[in-house]
User: What shape does this take?
Amino acid sequence: MVNLAQKNVITPFGSTLTPDTKVKLSGQKPEVIYPEWTPYPTDLNQVKAVDYIVNGFVRNGIQLFAGATGVGKSTAMVPIATSVTGFGLQNSPLQTNRPRKVIYLTEDPEQVERILYAMKRSGNTRLNDPAFKEWFLLLESKRLPPEEFARRIDEYALDYGVTQQTESGIIVNSPLIVADTYSSNFSLDNENDNAQGAECIAKIKEPAMRHRMPIWIVAHTAKAMSRADFESLSARGAGSLEADVNGTGYLFIDEKLDKRVLRLKKYRFEPTIKEVAIETESYREVVFDEVGDSQEVWCRYGIPVKSSEEERYAKAEQVKQERVMKRISEIEEKILKVLLKHPKGISKSELCDQIDVKKSDCIGSINQLIDLGEIVEIDGFSKVGRKMKVLCHLGTSRANEGEF
Assistant: This one.
């Protein structure tokens, strides 16, 4: 047996084993000794509390959040990430009782800066605290091999962990790393390869679990999504990415309500918050560029608000009924206008021919107006003198003559 302090040894994943790991050597080629299964301290006397990162919503572990291009992933994720620091939106349903520092890795730091500015301008006084910059570290992302990303997890866990005094003693809260986006933070030969995707998650999961350090990965979906597509949603790239993370959530547009929704899909616990709607607040700022010319810059951020699938379906049904009633009202209004132009009455068929709607909708509205007493059906004559039923508006002289 040879100690690693004497010789570096490469694991099957390509990373160097830690100094206290021992391996067997056979000639010049190291024989890999895989890690042993670790016994779990089972306690059947009580249920363990969920290790929440966001109370009732996201637990500790590797979480994948995905959404279509342009759906507003960053404008939604930045405010949610700030809630983890304890400096988030005061009225948001997403809060934490274990504040931790956030390391936000983004391909567009200026966009994140604008989002934070919009949050501050909206009256979120928590961002005025100078300490916020120490709790929310904004870094420009670099495409790194998974093993290097894993090494930095070890490094940042030690450098940015914070202690918290509780009734039971002092606990350590490891920082949250947000990788926005997957493709801009991980260097893979082929992100659609399942083996590479699985290996990437395996490499970062080991140090993350060791430090109880949450990792959020923001990714693109394979296509634009709507509410109807939710069950078939998937992130772009290897399917193993979703299979190997601890949880998934998807940002999509509920087209029936024209509303953005962030909903959890995969979770290994029972969250009390399964989804939030994302409302948007925007600000327009007039600024000056380096040569002194003015320009308009829009700053916007997402506001998480309470939501549930049941409420959305009920609201969608309400909106549908309101639209139906509005359309019926519009048809009825057209019917009444036509009848006022024909004081001697007009047949149902002639009336429907003058209204640009389906005949079945026209007949339904006519019957509704008859039941309401707005119009009447009386005896009349066709243009060739044949007896027939005609419709009259109650406001016409013939209807008031009582010929019905």
About this structure: Residues 309-340 form the longest helix (32 residues). The longest strand covers residues 275-288.
